[in-house]
Structure formats: structure tokens, C-alpha cells
Design a protein that fits this description.
Blueprint (H helix, E strand, L loop, with lengths): L22 H9 L1 H6 L3 E6 L5 E7 L10 E5 L10 H8 L4 E5 L22 H16 L8 E5 L1 H12 L7 E4 L12 H18 L26 H13 L10 H16 L8 E6 L8 H13 L10 E3 L11 H17 L2
Parallel strand pairs: 3-4, 3-5, 5-6, 6-7, 7-8
Antiparallel strand pairs: 1-2, 2-4
Helix pairs in contact: 4-5, 5-8, 6-8
């Protein structure tokens, strides 16, 4: 794609050809050349806010010189960098050094509650502070140029907040299925808010720990037919096996505290859109039910008016037939999302 071309609102079928891992070869690839690549990474820990241990990983082509091509990956809720092996491998092979962390309370990072399955954060800002420390300590000193950012789902909200507080550190951004609104499942917002407030009231009155939000529960394996994350049976099989075989990665549903903090963070993102001055593109999955995609539309409409470099045509990139996990979808959708990501970065160097 030429440097001055704009991405269309519908991803183009004429994207440059990239070589990515396929569903057919993935299981073998993970045991062979991806496994060989993976052990060359640096797996680190650091203390985040309140001394919570944060686990992270970096993958560099040459550890003796500063990289000209850095990518920061900010995962979504419940994810670990171990889930991202295929994606990291594919992007690394396009010439990028990769930096990724497990957010507090999930993945390999330390958890705050006795029930380690509960999706909990004391303050949403702690996610951002952990990311800021990771950037300042491990990413910026390693990179010759500003890194790019690829953030998914809850990571999109964390990444956007980080960018508003640190507007000069990232070159260009892809927000994939970002959490800019939380589904209320048909309930009017004021009723959903009242339920949240009522739940929190009784939680604070009766308990010294955060309760699960209504309908949430500990981790359990779901059948492929019941999942709403990805259409790729091969990738779903490997994803579920990873979590079943590694209990330390397992995370259940969200708590009242997580919902409260996330809604407050989303409000702050929209109040501070004028601080997002770098090129940002948003990916919207047509069949996404994990987040409320109307928030992605609102974000792009408002941001494009403030920053014409972002959200071409005032709307997200639209991925027809896709579930929430664009980078774990069937090959056709995944390759489209990956190619569009790389083209966005190339366009905004």
C-alpha cells in the first residue's frame, strides 16, 4: 500500500501478501519452529503498583543494538502472553521486536484476591501504571524509534488511557475490538447502573472481598460450539488446551469492582479524546458480543473530528463475519486483520 493511501472502512482484498501461520499447520508449528523461536525470548518480572508481580516477555532480533521496529502488545482481559505465541511469531517474522505483559490479576501475573479466578482490579489506573513502568523500563530504552502499539479488548481501554497520559511515546496504534462500552444485555443503562450500585452496596456491607458480578463464575471450559470468541476450531482447541493444562492461567468472570472501575475508565477515555494525537485505527468485529461495538463507532466519530489522522472515514475498520478475537479467527479473517495492522504501521512510520 502506498504511503499516502488511506485504509478503507472495509478492509481491502488487495492487501500486500504476507506469510502467516495457517490453521492447518498451527498445531505442528507450535511444537516445532514456534517452540524453537519462543525459547529465545526474555521472560521477565517486575513489581507493579502495590508490589504486585507483573510477568512480561520480550522478543528481539538483536539484543546488542537498539531496535528500529518495536511493537508493544497490550492483551485483553483474561489473556496471557502465552496465548499470543502464534501472533508474536508472525509479527516478529515481519521484522518487529515484540514487547508484551500479563496484566495484574491474570495470566502469569500475581492476583490480589484469595479466589484467583475472580476478575478483579482495585483501580483501573493500576493497569495503566504497570504498562507505563513496563514501557519506561523495558521498551523505550530498547527501541531506537517510538514503538507501535497493538491493543486488544480491555487492553484497548488500557492502551487508550496510557496514550492520553503519555501522548508522545507511541508512533501509531491499532485497537482491535477495544472495550469502549460494556454490554448491558438489553437492560437500559440506568437499570444496569442501579444493579451495579446495589451489588456494590451489599458487597461493601457484608463482605471484605469483591463479589462476582451477576451471572459470573469461576473458570470453566466451554465447548467450541458455545464459544463467542473465534470461529477457528483449530485455534480454539489450542487456546482451551493451554488454559486447561495450565491452571495458573485460568480466570473466571468479572467482579463488581472490575465493572465499576472499567465503566469509570471508559468515561474518562471519552472525556479526554483530545489528548489522543497519534494515528489510531479501530478494528470492529461484526459478530462481537464480548464488548458493545457501539462504543467503537462513537469513539471513531468523535476522535476523527479531533484527529483526522485517526479512524479513516470516521469509522472503524469492519471485519465481516468475525467474532471478538480477530487474531485468533479463521485464516481468512485473521490474515486480513494482521495485514491491515501491518499496513497501518507501514503507512504511519
Amino acid at each position: 500500500m502506498a504511503h499516502n493511501e488511506k485504509l478503507s472502512s472495509q478492509p481491502s482484498n488487495k492487501l500486500p501478501h504476507y506469510n502467516f501461520t495457517s490453521e492447518k499447520s498451527l498445531e505442528v508449528s507450535l511444537k516445532t519452529h514456534i517452540a524453537k523461536f519462543w525459547v529465545q525470548g526474555d521472560f521477565i518480572t517486575f513489581n507493579g503498583v502495590k508490589n504486585i508481580r507483573i510477568n512480561a516477555a520480550t522478543f528481539q532480533h538483536n539484543k546488542t543494538i537498539k531496535s528500529e521496529n518495536c511493537l508493544l502488545i497490550v492483551p485483553g482481559r483474561g489473556e496471557s502472553y502465552l496465548k499470543y505465541q502464534e501472533l508474536i511469531f508472525d509479527i516478529f517474522n515481519q521484522g518487529y521486536d515484540i514487547f508484551i505483559l500479563d496484566h495484574r490479576g491474570q495470566g502469569l501475573s500475581e492476583r490480589s484476591l484469595k479466589n484467583k479466578h475472580k476478575g478483579y482490579v482495585e483501580k483501573f489506573q493500576y493497569y495503566v501504571d504497570d504498562l507505563d513502568y513496563f514501557m519506561k523500563t523495558f521498551v523505550i530504552p530498547t527501541c531506537q524509534n517510538k514503538p507501535f502499539m497493538l491493543a486488544h479488548s480491555m487492553g484497548g481501554a488500557i492502551g487508550a488511557t496510557y496514550l492520553q497520559q503519555n501522548p508522545t511515546t507511541i508512533k501509531a496504534v491499532v485497537l482491535a475490538s477495544p472495550m469502549f462500552a460494556i454490554p448491558s444485555h438489553g437492560l437500559p443503562f440506568f437499570i444496569a447502573k442501579a444493579l451495579l450500585n446495589t451489588g456494590q452496596f451489599f458487597e461493601h456491607l457484608l463482605s471484605d472481598t469483591s463479589w462476582y458480578f451477576f451471572g459470573q463464575h469461576d473458570f470453566k471450559k466451554e465447548k467450541f460450539e458455545d464459544n463467542n470468541l473465534m470461529h477457528s476450531q483449530a485455534r480454539y482447541k489450542l487456546f482451551t488446551e493451554l488454559y486447561v493444562n495450565n491452571p495458573a492461567l485460568q480466570l473466571g468472570g468479572v467482579t463488581f469492582q472490575w465493572v465499576h472501575e472499567s465503566l469509570s475508565a471508559i468515561d474518562e477515555i471519552f472525556l479526554n479524546l483530545n489528548k489522543l494525537n497519534m494515528p489510531i485505527v479501530v478494528f470492529k468485529a461484526e459478530l462481537d458480543s464480548t464488548v458493545d461495538t457501539e462504543g467503537q463507532d462513537d469513539f471513531c466519530k468523535q476522535l476523527h473530528r479531533l484527529n483526522p489522522l485517526s479512524c479513516p472515514n470516521s469509522r472503524p475498520e469492519y471485519f465481516k463475519g468475525a467474532y471478538h478475537e480477530l487474531f485468533f479467527e479463521t485464516d481468512e479473517i485473521r490474515h486480513q486483520a494482521l495485514s491491515t495492522t501491518l499496513n497501518w504501521f507501514n503507512q504511519n512510520r
